[in-house]
Amino acid sequence: MLKKQFKIITHTGFAAPATMLVMSTSMVKSRMILEYRDDFIELKNSPKTVMDIMLLNIRPGDYFNIKADGIDEYEVLQSIEISLSNLGLECL
Q1: DSSP class of residue 13?
Q2: pTM of the predicted protein model
Q3: How far apart are CA 61 and CA 75, in angstroms?
Q4: pLDDT in tens, 47-79
Q5: Rounded to whole angstroms, how far apart are CA atoms 69 and 9?
Q6: Which residues pair with 18 in a beta bridge?
């Protein structure tokens, strides 16, 4: 299992990153988990998952983790890191 921490550095909201995270799960074999404070959401390709992420109310300056567990975990996290940095999030 691999884990990366991200920090939101943009003030544009979290809808686009949430949608990107959910869409990215349709192309991977690894199990993906978003961890924020004491909440864990399994990232599945579903509109409900986007809503679950939005309900976390992640704000600028907040940190969250993405965990990947599976055969393509390294590649998945690298791809997510690039995509999220393009959306104004910083990987730590």
Answers
A1: -
A2: 0.87
A3: 26
A4: 899 999 999 998 888 899 999 999 999 999 998
A5: 26
A6: none
